[in-house]
């Protein structure tokens, strides 16, 4: 995602330095406890993306997620009081929707993303230092609702649609991460991502056609307009 953000910035004529701090399968509390030395420096914008279910032990419960988000925001803003700290609303996991054993099993594919969005927005409203959220999950839902993307990877990808999930039906595919990056870039910079157009070079590097890139750019822009 950082590489995509940087590529978009270069094509838009914007000067951004982008860094990433991540650890697979960990939540924000882990990062506050174990990665403070990396995070504790001056940033202008910080994007916090938590664990895919917010809490591994209590899926959908934002208590631990919100506490850690507040701690990280305080850490960042102690260095730069003007820093903008935002939460990413992540997407529905197909494996937790179409397979049994999850709180989202048997629900519409859009349900998990809506639940995560509500939880993150509540955290943003009630936690000092959090400047808002980025509606990535809503962008995925819109792509599915408008038939730009397929809804169920377990039964194959419908002709003319994109698969948003990787083969594990959990993480994003190239198209899924491209849509995430567009949504984050548009929210952080205020840039109209539709201007990137069919010739946007990162899309070509990912194997997306110009038509697919334009469709995903439109989804990101529309979602951001509706979720300010």
What's the β-strand tally?
3
Low-confidence stretches: none
With helices defined by DSSP (H or I, 4 residues minimum), what is the helix count? 10
Estimate what percentage of residues fall within beta strands.
5-15%
Radius of gyration: 17 Å
Would you mind describing this structure in some detail?
- The protein is mainly alpha-helical.
- The chain has helices at residues 2-12, 28-34, 36-39, 63-79, 95-98, 111-126, 136-145, 174-189, 201-205, 210-226; strands at residues 45-48, 84-88, 132-134.
- The chain has a three-stranded parallel sheet, with helices on both faces.
- α4 links the parallel β1 (45-48) and β2.
- α7 (136-145) crosses α8 (174-189).
- The two termini are 22 Å apart.
- The model has no long low-confidence stretch (mean pLDDT 97).
Features:
mainly alpha; 10 helices
Ordered list of secondary-structure elements with their pairings:
Elements: H1 2-12, H2 28-34, H3 36-39, E1 45-48, H4 63-79, E2 84-88, H5 95-98, H6 111-126, E3 132-134, H7 136-145, H8 174-189, H9 201-205, H10 210-226
Parallel strand pairs: 1-2, 2-3
Helix pairs in contact: 1-8, 2-4, 6-7, 7-8, 7-10, 8-10
